[in-house]
Amino acid sequence: MTPVELSRTVLHAVRRAVDAGDLAVDLHGLPDLPRRVSVAPPGPGGHGDYATNVALQLARPAGQPPLRVAEVLRPHLVHAAGIRDVEITGPGFLNIRLDRGTGSGLVQRVLTEGPRYGYSDLLAGRVFVLHVPFDVRAEVLADSLSRIVASQGGRVEVQHEESVTSSPPSWPLSVADAILVLRPLPAPEDPTLLGPDAARWALLHPAPHDRPRISADHLVQCESNPLFRVRYAHARTRAVHRNAADLGFAPLPTADTDADLDTSGPDQAQLLRLLADHPRLLSSVVPADATRPDPGTPSRLTRHLVVLADAVIPFLPTVLPRGAEKPSAAHRARLALADAVGAVLAGGLSLLGIDAPDHL
Question: Which of 49, 47, 87, 39 is nearest to 67 (CA)?
Fold first, then answer.
């Protein structure tokens, strides 16, 4: 279960509690209740895989303490498919432990959707206007935001500030759902000398309020270069796939994948968590409690890809048989996981406007 799916599961549990009369809340009278609730890794003192503060959101309209609301919601949530246990901590946080028998379904889903894994219709029909200056970094950031919003079904119209002749901006809110003025710190020098891919990474990897570093370090093929690590990890997943084909076996994410993968080990478990978190990251381009795209999303995506690349590189040597070892179900399951990681790396780089070569 991905965080986006878990968010929907929590909302369904809220609706079931209301319909059953266990929670006296008029959901139609709560325009501030988001279409998806926030789920995130638990903070200090939390437990499980994810935590949500939905009970705290509903406490005031329900006229109940958050802890009581959480106690009401827990039985409606604990029996949902894909959830193993729910624990209440602090003032009313619901800490959710997922069913670990879902690795095969996650890997199969990623392989089926390929680089489009994480795409949704969450923002379908919504239009956002970005006002940007005539600056290369603002242009690149606007382009990446447009790609990520489009992956969630929305649309971005870019308007340059010098072309705006009226104040407030000429796009009325009846046409645009929200208007955002985008002014990231400009690059200290011309990044185009780095080439299109390295230039885009140099401009997108820092947060918009941080000044980008423009240097030849972005072109060096070494471990200190995060762009190289991401592209190298993707190319290695493709090389492992080709080598497996030469040995006569293919990825096979079946119901036995969960048994064949050592999900108790740090490598596989971390990869599965990062894969599951990818849709949440893309959907957070417009946060649940906000109305406009978050310009920090591309930089968070770059960091997510770096963490994923760093996690998969030490895992890849375990994918292929060694010596006289015959390909087994475990090798097929690991190859499926490696292919899934490669698909997410390629899809993430595409949303940044950066090429993901199969050979590097």
Answer: 87
Tokens of 136: 């290369």
Contact in structure between 312 and 337 (CB atoms under 8 Å): no
pTM for the full predicted model: 0.76
The string of pLDDT tens digits covering residues 279-331 is: 989 988 988 667 889 999 999 999 999 999 999 999 999 999 988 889 998 89
∠ Cα 306 308 313 (to 5°) = 95
Of 180, 193, 178, 217, nearest to 136 by C-alpha is 193
Sheet of 155-160: strands edge to edge?
155-160, 127-132, 178-181
The closest of 301, 351, 296, 295 to 132, measured between CA atoms, is 295
- Rounded to whole angstroms, the Cα distance separating 239 from 125 reads 40
Q: How many angstroms separate the CA atoms of 95 and 88, rounded?
A: 6
Highest mean pLDDT, choosing among 91-95, 141-145, 249-253: 141-145
Q: Is 239 exposed, middle or buried (0-12, 13-18, 19+ CB in 10 A)?
A: middle
**What is the spatial distance between Cα 258 and Cα 105, in angstroms, rounded to a whole number?**
9
Distances (CA, A) of 242 to 237, 246, 260, 322: 9, 6, 21, 16
> What tokens appear for 231 in the block?
């592209």
Given this model, what pLDDT does residue 345 score? 98
